[in-house]
Specification:
It is an enzyme of class 4 (lyase). It comes from Breznakia pachnodae. Belongs to the class-I fumarase family. InterPro entries: Fe-S_hydro-lyase_TtdB-typ_cat, Fe-S_hydroAse_TtdB_cat_sf. With about 170 residues, the chain is of the alpha/beta class. The protein has a single domain, classed as fumarase (Alpha-Beta Barrel). The protein contains 5 helices and 7 strands. A 5-stranded mixed β-barrel has the order 2-3-4-5-7. About 40% of the residues are buried.
Length: about 170
C-alpha cells in the first residue's frame, strides 16, 4: 500500500497496477449521473464548467446528509456504470481518475488507456468509514441536485483499489 496525493498526472497514473491498494489524499470532486449529464450539456453549449477537468479525480458518491458537528455524511461509492455514457468524454477532457464501485464498459476502459488515467474502487458498504476521510467539503455546483451536487472535497488517506490501470488491465476480468 502506498500513499498518493492529488492531482494525479499521466506520469503518476502510469505507475498504478491493477489490484494495488492506495491511500489517496488531496482534492477530489463528487459527481454522479445527474451532474455528469449537466456537465456534458454545458460542454455541448460551450459554457464554462464549474471546475477545471485537468488531472482531477471524480468520486461517484451521493453522501448522506451531514450530521451536526461533522464535516461530511456517509460517503459510500455508487455504481460506476451509471456514468459510463459520460465518462469517456470527461476522461478525454482531462479527468485522470474516477472512484466508484463495479464494472466499467469497454468504452470507459479505452478512454482510461488512451488518456493514461485510472479507475479506482472504494469499498461498498463502508460509507461511514469513508466519510471520515473527508476533511473539508465545499459545494461547487448544482445545489438543486441535493446529494448529487458537485462538491470539492479534501480527503486524507481514502482507501482505494486500482480496478482499471492505465494499461487497461481490469480487476473484474
Amino acid at each position: 500500500m502506498r500513499k498518493v496525493t492529488t492531482p494525479l498526472t499521466k506520469e503518476v497514473c502510469d505507475t498504478f497496477t491493477c489490484g494495488e491498494v492506495i491511500y489517496l489524499s488531496g482534492i477530489i470532486y463528487t459527481a454522479r449521473d445527474a451532474a455528469h449529464k449537466r456537465l456534458c450539456e454545458m460542454l455541448d453549449r460551450n459554457e464554462p464548467l464549474p471546475m477545471d477537468l485537468k488531472d482531477i479525480t471524480i468520486y461517484y458518491v451521493g453522501p448522506t446528509p451531514t450530521p451536526p458537528g461533522k464535516i461530511f455524511g456517509s460517503a459510500g461509492p455508487t455504481t460506476s456504470s451509471r456514468m459510463d455514457a459520460y465518462a469517456p468524454r470527461l476522461y478525454d477532457l482531462g479527468v485522470k481518475a474516477t472512484i466508484g464501485k463495479g464494472y466499467r464498459s469497454t468504452q470507459v476502459k479505452d478512454a482510461i488507456t488512451n488518456n493514461h488515467a485510472v479507475y479506482f474502487v472504494a469499498i461498498g458498504g463502508a460509507g461511514a468509514l469513508l466519510g471520515k476521510c473527508v476533511k473539508k467539503a465545499e459545494l461547487i455546483a448544482f445545489e438543486d441536485l441535493g446529494a448529487e451536487a458537485i462538491q470539492r472535497l479534501e480527503v486524507e488517506d481514502l482507501p482505494l483499489t486500482v480496478a482499471i490501470d492505465s494499461k487497461g488491465v481490469m480487476l473484474y476480468e
